[in-house]
Amino acid sequence: MILHPGVLSLIIGSLIVIVMMVYSSALGLKILKRWNIDSSSSEQLSLERKTYLISTIMNYVLGFMVLSAFLFIYTADDIHRLFIGAMCATGSLNANPVGWYVLYTKIIVFFLSSIWIAFNYIDQKAEDYPLVKTKYTILLFITPFIILDAYLQMRYFIGLKPKVITSCCGSLFSEAGKGIASSLSSLPVKPMMIIFYVTIGIFLLNALLSLRLRNSIPRYALTFLSLVVFVVSVASIISFISPYFYEIPTHHCPFDILQKNYYLIGYPIYITLFSGVFFGMITGILEPFKKLGSLIIIIEKSQKKWIALSILLILIFALISSWPMLSLSFSRDGVW
Amino acid sequence: MMSIVIKTENVTKVFNPNLPNEVKAVTDISIEIENGEVVVLKGPSGSGKTTLLSLIGCMSRPTEGSIIVNGKDVARLPERFLTKIRQKTFGFVFQMFNLIKGVNVIENVMLPLYPTDAKLFVIKKRAEAILDKLDILKKRDFKTQSLSAGEQQRVAIARALINEPEIILADEPTAHLDTKLSEDLIKILRGLNEDRKTIIIATHDPFVYEKAFVHRIIEMRDGVIKNPTPQIIPYPENEVWDK
Amino acid sequence: MEKHKKILEYAISSILRRKYKNLAIIIVFSFMITILASILFLTHSLKMESLNLLLGSPQLIVQRVSGGRHDLIPINYIKRIQGIYGAGKITPRYWGYYYDSATDGNYTLMGVDKDMQGLRLLNGEMPSKNGECAIGKGVSSARFTGIGEKVYLIDSKEKVLAFNVVGVFTSISNILTNDLILLTKEDILGFFGMPSDKATDIVVEVYNEFETPFVASKIKEILPDTRPIMKSEIIRTYDALFSWRSGIALIMFLGALISFLILAWDKATGLSADEKQDIGILKAIGWETSDILELKFWEGLAISLTSFLTGLILAYVHVFFLGAWLFAPVLKGWSVIFPSFRFFPYINLYQVFAVLFLTVIPYVASTIIPSWKTAITDPDTVMRG
Prior knowledge:
Oligomer: heterotrimer
Number of domains of chain A: 2
Largest interface: A-C, 46 and 50 residues
Strand content of chain C: 15-25%
Radius of gyration of chain A: 23 Å
Low-confidence stretches of chain A: 166-179, 330-336
Structural class of chain A: mainly alpha
């Protein structure tokens, strides 16, 4: 266990969020059971008012999750000196591989709560609140992930054993040989580049298609392609995008680009990637709900907006990511 | 061309249902109000006129029955949408003025349009125009607690008008005004009616309901309508005298 | 967009309208943030200070361990280490601690060789003859002495010795030189009564940093009774130590945080009649529940950001201009002699972010339910009188 301000903040923050989420889930369950939009009973009114509380909490939870993902990475980065061979956050995560799962759960919770907020947004535009049941069912799925996230996070920090000098035996040099791998194993650069640009190309084409056609198929495909773009992009960031920013072909850390030394370029990269993927994903997820009469126009209108946004964001993401390759390829052609 | 703007069908509102302190505020009310009418809900306190006014004004939902505003049944709408309808249809003038203390006159008038997408300077222009029309623009930067009762009432009316409502609802508007100020208020209301606004006033002040511009009086007692066939009571001679 | 701007504007004007109530919360909140940020700034600064210092320190220190304890190391070990491939210059060090009952402080006494470099002097010079010494700023002011005057120390045989001060260290913030007294090597040996064929420890320079573990393991092999300590290990230990210290300090601070949250909750739930009236009016004139929630969100954000910035600035002043007088003794825990101590302002965004996380998030969380309760006021409340 490492006692550290960042660790404490993360643990306290997670506890607060769990309390809020468990409370909302209890309210959500009650809403699922008792909701009756046609009733004018005072119970229905009070349930209706509780939905405001839940959506407020969910908005805060989403905000918290984004901040906590960053704080988690910062913390991992800050403590890397405690581990032999660790050179950045990657090393700290490798020091106790549970750390990677924490990162995954944070990403999952981020997407789930964003999806929830999108459902809520659509639902609140229709006078009969047609998505109430769906919404609160999703909510019940988010809570376990938040608890899992907090649990894994706790296990990660507890499982970290910093290698410090103890009074009995100072030297730990014997362990230096099996120090923590400082880099991630990454896919070969050239094929990865081809996959990256082809995927982005297909995604953009399909997005343009779904913007033009009212057909459902390209929109479902958009959801699927968003996921593919996400996975491929993250792999590409590790494989070749970040090394280009570091100008070190062997440094495959997806986190260091968040640092000042690299002009904080990681922020625009991740923000455009995550939000672009989200807007692409949500388009198809809401497609089936057009069947609910009152939603068809609302969803159609929002989808147009979302598709346009995701095209724009993914395009910006691809441009920023390609920038150093374009500017460097002249000077370093042979090396890469 | 007259058209029905508000129609209630068997509206009942019960407070604290199934509790010992259950109150049937209004029971089985069915009325129709036409565009451009001035209607008074008359009755002693506790007669349910304020409750009816708040139901018509989409402030609360009836326990039973339906309320149709401009052809749309609002009785079962969630609060979010009720508020939207309220925002574009109604202007409220309250008994206690209900201005926010410590906030200056113009901002009080502008407040109802804050949670809309209207630009601030547009709202400000509009507020200034209304304050000017009500002859109180010179007090625009005063805090409301420094105004006289009459001035406060006019600010409250200005606020009710900022969203350009087609229906004005007034709850005991003369309760805190002396005769002279009540006179002024009636003049303002009459002016609004001349601008084709529908006006519904809940009051038990004869000074109001005996005025010529009132087209119709609906008398209430114990939550029910006392004159079951509401009729138009014209005061033609009064009107001549008034003008 | 327009809508949010206007609600934000109204939120700020309503905070200003209730200046005193909000001021109370801002003051308490700022104070909390000041304390918290001070802890983090201070430990971070100490950590950076030590790390910077260690960066200039030798790659490898060899101690002799006897009976599980640190012992004096024979000089002739140097010859045996010299043969190891990769090892550079090897120098013995002579040093020890000295407790001064007059000032109730611990000093570090160190012997110098002629070629000892890298330490800056305020004025004067290094001790070159027996009976001379150079002292740290802390020692100088604790003993009210300076160049040209004398320092009296009692040696291991209870004999009072006088040393001429020939130099005083300049470094304002340097942790190591503050409590330092430099003597000549011979004086040190005599003072501590150390045998002349032994040193306190041995410093080994390694040409290639990456070969340090190899050199260290070789030394351990040849001289099994020694403990080689690598610089990276020391850095790691310091790092862990300071993180641990600030963690402990934060835990002590949690109680205060919780009581503040209770206060915030109380303030937020215990709305005055005036405020309730205002919310009722807003609801009546067409504000929706979510608009009120947004209003409350902006209010909370404005209050916490104001407190946050105030707190950060106060903490900065407290730590870097006032020497963290509130709790430096607890956190430094090094030696009692720290009469004046200026920290170098090392701040990273991470510290700021952690403070934000520890204060603003719990505050915001504690106001959610009270704000919601206010926001669901019936719109017709004001009509029912």
